[in-house]
Amino acid sequence: MSPFLSSFLLPFCLFSFFSFSFSSKPSHKVYIVYLGEHTGSYAAEEIQENHHGLLFSVKNSEEEARRSILYSYKNSINGFVALLSDEEAEILSAREEVISAYPSEAKWAPHTTRSWEFLTDYEGLNQRGFGFLENDWQPSKANHGKDVIVGMLDSGIWPESKSFSDEGFDPVPARWRGICETGQSFKASLCNRKIIGARYYIKSYEAYYGSLNTSYSYRSPRDGDGHGTHTSSTVAGRSVSNVSALGGFAYGTVSGGAPLARLAVYKVCWPIPGPNPNIENTCFEADMLAAIDDAIGDGVDVLSISIGSIGDPPTFSKDGIAVGALHAAKREIVVVCSAGNSGPKPATVSNLVPWIITVGASSIDRAFTAEIKLGNNVIVTGQTVTPYQLEGKDYPLIYAGDAAIAGTAANLTGQCLPNSLSPEKVKGKIVLCFRGTGLRAEKGQEVKRAGGAAIILGNAIANGNEVPVDAHVLPGAGVSASDATKILIYINSSSNPTASLGRARTVNGIKPSPSMAQFSSRGPNVLEPNILKPDITAPGLNILAAWSESSSPTKLGNDKRKVKYNIISGTSMSCPHVSATAVLLKSIYPHWSSSAIRSAMMTTATLNNAQGGPLMNGDGTTGGPFDFGSGHVRPIHAADPGLVYEASYQDYLLFMCASTGVQMDFYYPCPKDPPLPYALNYPSVAVSRLNGTVSIFRTVTNVAQGKSQYRVSVDNPNGISVQISPKSLKFNDVGEKKSFKIVLKDKGTVMRGNGTYVSGSYTWNDGVHLVRSPIVVSFG
């Protein structure tokens, strides 16, 4: 490596990635060799030559070195991805200019309309001029996100969708430096003034799985799955009228949150080979890091990443999304990620670093109701978006557990797993199945295979009353856990159980709403409990958006139906709602820092539902900070937060020193005693294992016009005394900063136990703005 180039490296730690075998050299794996950050202006060829030279030092020939390299990161991130033996990686790690070389170990996957209309109605403050719909008659300071560039890391895009029309758009902003990469069924002409860039990243995927099977996905930015098209249109889709899901459900006008924003597509997720590759996608860290590096170089303003780790999250310094996002944060690019779909189990939230906005999922006020009438005249209300209907008569009703074939595991007999039902027992009947193991739509497919007339899909207890809807391949409906139990009791108590299934319809105005989705991953933060995660929640249950026309609404291999718009659920759907809000804020305040935008959303979030009651969980319990973070996003309020909490790149480096002991930048060595993690100037406060008294300092920046004076109020956590000084902050100018001290004291009045947490909050109020921060404390 050139001494001139290496002298400018800002060292970072390496991340671990999937360990995979190389067919011709079984001992070789994919490694990322991480060298830091580019701080000078170097030609891409020079950077790549330096990477080749470093790799050549452990290879037998220059040709072998060039053949082994998969990626050479050239924009912000300095490093490369290559096929290495463990011995070669160890030799490279020992070199002075190399920070680390790690094999890949962690897999990642996507976390898989009315939602924006609901948000504006929910706030009840449209008069403040922060509209969302493209044809909204009200003036909008955000101008619908015009010319803000949002980068989408996902499964690609279906460019022909009307949601991505560029009609009426101005020329592409001159600051844009990206490209439109061509490939299978994707010509350069498919990019336009709306989709201004498109790339795809597959090298790490193919190093693991071999060549892509193009029967299931496109070797191009084109989306063969639907997930990426859905998230992209939720962020920035145009306003399209006369839209509905299959069967005419959710009919109306659909729009993204920032319909005049520009889209840059980075396809990083691909199908997992297997019996049904349409169902699951995987996203490799090395591919995602290459995409983030290009997105930074291309000039995006916001990155929306509905992807998270599978299983235990990787440590911060070995988390590709986290470290790539740190590079983005240094350039004030807002990075928004999904929290995960592993709830309601505690400590399952992913994307845990403080420079990422981590989003949970909640419901909106829409349902797709279908009446189920049992033979005892009891009526149960289910939900469905299947276009198929039963005749208006009673059908025999059977529990799947009573129709399972011999050999089905006892704990799985009611699950309707593939090839588990006896056609002799099921034919012509409505079958009650339960969620738990397997895919919801696949359970319907199994009932159809066995000759069943319809499916009633019952929630497990953990799913509570929240019913994600599916476009089943036969008539059917989903029901809550309590209603599923009611139906099962009826079946067991009747010698001839029957039921009828009525026609489904779209119903708006469901109360109470919103509520937290049970699938949304919960806190606390398992890697750093002194940072509260998730940060915020947004709509993610039964969201209608654009879809890939090469993918069926269920994504099942035998489902040949095609749709232009589809309804799906997940924190993958809530993430783009917050990404769009960030786009709108970026449009209003182009010079705001990424941390100011995060703070504006968090401190203006609400703890109440649209009816004024507390935000509830899907199981009927009252929600808390580990469910929804600071609360439910309110985009209109976020446009006028009053005060913001800002954190710099250097603050994040100090956080890493304290949290992990890792020096992330050559020019910023870790001090001997770095500030503790909870000292980061974050919009929420989390203190783990409080024992006695702790003092925390925070600084707020005034972003409101005119002079103001704020006074603080405190909602003390149970057993904790919270003292804030000073109790009043006076501001004369925009941009003025004021600091204050928070003293938390354990009063010793709460019973201790493993995992005992208490929560409260403090709020700054000037009579116009309420700037609220949650407080979460566990005891030592």
Proportion in helices:
10-25%
Given the structure, what is the number of helices? 17
Total beta strands: 38
Strand percentage lies at 25-35%
Give the quaternary arrangement of the chains.
single chain
The overall pLDDT average reads: 90
Protein name: Subtilisin-like protease
Domain PA: 412-487
Active site: 154 (charge relay system), 227 (charge relay system), 572 (charge relay system)
Domain Peptidase S8/S53: 145-610
Question: What distinguishing features does this structure have?
Answer:
780 residues, alpha/beta, 8-stranded mixed beta sheet, 7-stranded parallel beta sheet, 26% strand, globular, disordered N terminus, signal, serine-type endopeptidase activity, Peptidases_S8_3, Subtilisin-like_FN3, hydrolase
Give an overview in words:
The structure is a single chain. Mean pLDDT is 90; it is low at 1-26 and 124-139. The relative contact order is 0.12. Strands 17, 18, 19, 20, 21, 22, 23 and 24 form an eight-stranded mixed sheet that branches. A seven-stranded parallel sheet has the order 7-10-6-13-15-16-26, sandwiched between helices. The protein has a five-stranded mixed sheet with strand order 31-38-37-33-35, with no helix packed on it. Helix 2 (44-56) crosses helix 3, helix 7 runs parallel beside helix 13 (571-588) and helix 8 packs parallel to helix 9. The radius of gyration is 26 Å and the shape is globular. The chain is built from 17 helices and 38 strands. The longest helix has 18 residues, at 571-588. Helix content is 20%, strand content 26%. By secondary structure, the chain is an alpha/beta fold. Residues 680-777 form the Subtilisin-like protease fibronectin type-III domain. Keywords: Hydrolase, Protease, Serine protease, Signal.
